[in-house]
Amino acid sequence: MYHQTGLSKREGREIHADSSSSVSVKYCNVEDGQTGVGNIDSDPCFADKNNGDYHLKSQAGRWEPAGQSWVIDAATSHCIDAGNPGCPLGSEPIDVNNLRINMGAYGGTAIASKTPANWRSLANLTNDWIVDANDLKVFVNYWLKNGECIPADLNRNEKVDFSDFTAFAEDWRW
Ligand SMILES: [Ca+2]
Ligand SMILES: [Ca+2]
Ligand SMILES: [Ca+2]
Q: 114 CA distance to ligand 2 centroid (A)?
């Protein structure tokens, strides 16, 4: 994994044994790819990995611990807003562009990197860059499921029903 040393508790929760006791990994950045919903294989664009700064670069703002301030980068990490769409944002900065929790060590925290405008879609369950039949397939898999952090629970009320489908349809082909 790219972020081995920056692995957060939240990410750890995404890795669990299912009923067949195989391990499933969802919404993680995995080097060389890994089957599982929402996984990506992308340069995480850490601020300064060599010096232990695993904040994700962002054109909308990244917390810079040395200067204790938000700075703007020239690039944006694909891990931003690529976390499980059904998980609450936790303490991430409140902002109209921030639709989903970030992958990475600072996802769900007050110093999570900020989201540029028109970045990822809420309904893009597969984490490519379009909402299409592949996302619908994933959505249908979770239909009427209950519980925390279900990827298709787009309004995050711990059940997947028509209100989530309405949100999904609004993002179709986005
Ligand atoms: Ca976010
Ligand atoms: Ca998609
Ligand atoms: Ca729901």
A: 21
